[in-house]
Amino acid sequence: MENERKKVLLALSGGLDTSFCAVYLREEKNMEVHSAIVNSGGFLEEELDRVAAHAKKLGVVSHEVLDMTAEYYKRCVRFMIFGNTLRNRSYPLSVSSERTFQAIALVEYARKQGFKYISHGSTAAGNDQVRFDLVIQVLAPEMEVITPIRDLQISREDEIDYLKKSGVEMNWSKLEYSINQGIWGTSVGGKETLSSSDELPSEAYPTPMEKSGTETLTIGFHQGEPVSLNGQVLEPVMVIRELEKLAAPWGVGRDVHVGDTIIGIKGRVGFEAAAARIIIDAHLALEKHV
User: 180-289: what fold?
Assistant: First the structure.
């Protein structure tokens, strides 16, 4: 039919950028919007439920959770542990390493469901746009990639105004910062990271820094992989999750990464990756002794 709406699969995290994309694609592009969230280990079940409920309020026709946690650990994270991988001796490639696996999951789901269009909320300022676009174009060259945030070069303030005018209700104060959660760490971006001098306030980070003093932890390794925490045998993914809960409130693994972007300028992003930093440091120390 001539007036039939084109179906698009949107990578929806539930944050500001992808929420804007959902409404914009439906209202301005007259598309039938379906969404998927790729969980690489950073979301709890109740958080995934909140995203699903939010997608429904945004007018999304269908929403799917794609879990890549085990695959991401098996094919990526464990090798970063083996290599003690830290960019600039600080950043454990937390969220940036996930993007390839998130894009792969989106392509596989899009192909299975017959989508010809995929949309993501990456901006024009960083490398995520390239990570998503490259994977999609290599694995599914027949699919068209739609990037409203990048194409419109819209500010976060204008996104908020647009959503308010569209009747969308969100916790606007929390949207001052762009937060990406994953099993290997969480990135935090805001107005402070757009400059070379300002620092992110403590409250910008998802985990409150509320512990002080000292605490002793014991991590067990088998063939380079973390397999126990404080004497309790666990799957490596569970070691990472439980260690993050224990260590993040101490502020361990917090820093600001300064790296190169594809557009040729330096980019800054805050991150907290307590488990990643402790595991890599412990693995490195272990290598010295065996």
Answer: Argininosuccinate synthetase, chain A, domain 2 (3.90.1260)
Q: Is 114 exposed, middle or buried (0-12, 13-18, 19+ CB in 10 A)?
A: exposed
Q: pLDDT tens-digit profile of 64-123? A: 999 999 999 999 999 999 999 999 899 999 888 899 999 999 999 999 999 999 999 998
The pTM of the full predicted model, rounded to 2 decimals, is 0.90
38 φψ region: left (φ > 0), alpha (ψ -120 to 50), beta (else)? beta
User: Measured between alpha carbons, how far is 225 from 249 in angstroms, rounded to an integer?
Assistant: 24
In the structure, what pLDDT confidence band is assigned to residue 261 with cuts at 50, 70 and 90? confident
CATH code for 7-175?
Answer: 3.40.50.620
Q: Which residue is listed with tokens 């105004």?
A: 161
End-to-end CA distance of the chain: 68
Contact 286, 221 (CB under 8 A): yes
Determine which helix (DSSP H) or strand (DSSP E) holds 9, and give its type and residue range.
Answer: strand 7-11
Average pLDDT, the chain: 93
Domain boundaries defined on the chain? 7-175, 180-289
Q: Are 286 and 224 in contact (CB under 8 A)?
A: no
Provide CB contacts within 8 A for 77, sequence distance 6+. 97, 183, 184, 240
Cβ neighbors of 57 (< 8 A, separation 6 or more) are 168, 169
Return d(Cα 254, Cα 45) in angstroms, integer.
25
pLDDT digits (tens, 9 = 90+) for 110-128: 999 999 999 999 988 778 8
